[in-house]
TrEMBL record:
CDD domains: thiolase. Residues 268-390 form the Thiolase C-terminal domain. Its EC number is 2.3.1.9. Keywords: Acyltransferase, Transferase. GO terms for molecular function: acetyl-CoA C-acetyltransferase activity. It comes from the Bacteria. SUPFAM superfamilies: Thiolase-like. Belongs to the thiolase-like superfamily. Thiolase family. Residues 7-260 form the Thiolase N-terminal domain. The keyword Transferase applies. It comes from Sphingomonas kyeonggiensis. This is Acetyl-CoA C-acetyltransferase.
Amino acid sequence: MAAPTAYIVEAVRTAGGRRGGRLAGWHPADMAGEVLNAVADRSGIDPAAIEDVIMGCVSQGGEQGFQVGRNAVLASRLPESVPAVTIDRQCGSSQQAIQFAAQAVLSGTQDVVIAAGVESMTRVPMGSTGMLFAQAGLGGPKSPRQEARYPGVQFSQFMGAEMMARKHGFTRELLDAYALESHRRAASATERGDFDAEIVPLEVETPEGPALHTRDEGIRYDATAESIGSVKLLAEGGMISAANASQICDGASAVLIVSEAALKAHGLTPLARIHNLTVTGGDPVIMLEEPLFATDRALKRAGMSIDEIDLYEVNEAFAPVPLAWLKHVGGDPAKLNVNGGAIALGHPLGASGTKLMATLVHALHKRGLRYGLQTMCEGGGLANVTIVERL
């Protein structure tokens, strides 16, 4: 009997919107509903056959509160019979959604699942849910027992990025050069139309009137080493600036994952198959380094070497992360984030996992390549790795 397989049939995303930019008028549930509609429409599957929606979202409050995954289904054209759940693995939330969806299919529990993510960082600002409780005098997420285990430690991704830069011997000039290359690659990919197949157009209001949002808003087509190097550092004596870190972004994304039985029953054409699912935890203080070690484990479990992977998507939360990852695994810089990354395209937190998968799968098809690996750092010292094979 053949081993069970999980297939990616469709993978889409919105173009990123800058904070206060073109997607600021979209309620996050409605924006997420659009990508749910898109994977159903583009795949041709009967929406009633969808057995679950797993929605990643980090800031689950305000308009993203009260189970935004279910709200997205109710804002879409999917029937009410489609259930949904909202999950939070920080920046890896929707990459974990992919892995949960694939696990459901591989286990035989379900045959058709949408993994998705949404984040309107304009309408529900990063950290806002925690700040509301702190302002009300109700305390923050760090408990007394955590304090006893990590006395005086502030869990900060910004500090983790600075720690990584120092640990791996990077300079600000190197980080800024990486950021510039991210913008150059993203601009080139946009001009070539490499994102066209993955982007779901959204109607937006502009000063010139109604328009379709189809291009990532954060790309700096005129970026130079001088302009990036002139941006103020986030900490005195540090190396991290807003220019070599990911951009605040609004967006949504979705991936349709099915079993072999569903492929045949619904006449679907797969884009890729899931080859490996890995998640690991590590040091919560340096926090952002775990993708290095998670990738080691994923490759070992898959019985592969890094040389067999054709493209890598490593989330550009901060420039030290992909640079340290590349150095650690011995990868080829030409295979890394070939269409740019979150420094240029934006990092819509809970939507980034399925967003990167959409870009990775379509890039494999565009270039006629076979294996892709996706990973990202996550708050708390976590990392997901997903390896896919183009079909």
